[in-house]
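forwarding from the other thread:

> can someone predict this with adenosine-5'-diphosphate?

sure thing
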Amino acid sequence: TLPDLTLSTVLTSVRFTLGWYTARSYALIAGCTVLIVLLTETIWLYARLARTTVLLRRERANRLMSLDAATGAIAHEIAQPLAAIATGGSAILSWLKRTPPDLDEVRTSAIAVGEASHRANEIVSSVRALFRKTDDRRNLIHLDDVAREVLDLLQHDLESSQVSVATEYQGNLPPVRADRIQLQQIVLNLVKNAIEAMSSVPSGSRHVRVVTRLNGNSMVLLSVQDSGHGITVEDQDRVFDPFFTTKPTGMGLGLAICRTVAQDHGGNLRLVETSSHGSIFEIELPIGSTVDGLSESPAASGQ
Ligand code: ADP
């Protein structure tokens, strides 16, 4: 403004002279420059405002999503023990109706009901813990032990679905720091998915292979391989999306939750291979530090 004022007072006394043109040109250039700068600044401010609004909206959607996921997760994970409680209850009633009542069977069913309700309770606490992101329940755990426990739990399902199991545990695998129930849920979900994926395969060709091994110096891996028909190219990217399912009664939350849990433990869950001969899902977890109280489990074995 100052040079503009000076130029116009000094040089514009006579119109259409060089001085007059210089003063006008200067006024024009200065005006345009100021306008362009202001315009750029305004556009930049609006762009930032728009970006912030989008981020806020996404943040709100994410929060809603995790609420949905939490509710669905509880329903999904708890369905199995609840079904076991219902079956146990009706079994108890029918054993009691006999004359004389078969009290041994009643006792067995009552124990099963007790165990199932205990498991349901543990699952609820575990899902709550997951969304609270607490480290309280994490201990040093061997992946081999988790695999054995899950295969024991699923022994009946595996037998009734005529699935053969092969395991390959790497000896002396270092432990991971994790919540045992959450790890069990991941492996359980992977093996159950594997069983379900092979339902349309001839019964002699249903094989599950569970492998544990060290990956470099800092990670341990557990993979679950099945001999199902694999996952189509378009579904490969979507299997980890919440609510994606190809099963009539599926909820599509299993893999989404399992991946969140694995990532929450500093690791990951991946689909590493899939073809018409089957799929391999792999959990990767960081080796836990042995600073505080490791209770070593028996050496890992192979079968
Ligand atoms: P749900 O089991 O309730 O469908 P998941 O998140 O566990 O939910 O799985 C999502 C989808 O991924 C399944 O519906 C299925 O289509 C696919 N899937 C998962 N595991 C396998 C597998 N081992 N083989 C083939 N498809 C699989």
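The pocket of adenosine-5'-diphosphate is lined by residues 189, 193-194, 197, 226, 228, 231, 239, 244-247, 250-256, 279 (CB under 6 Å). thats all i got for now
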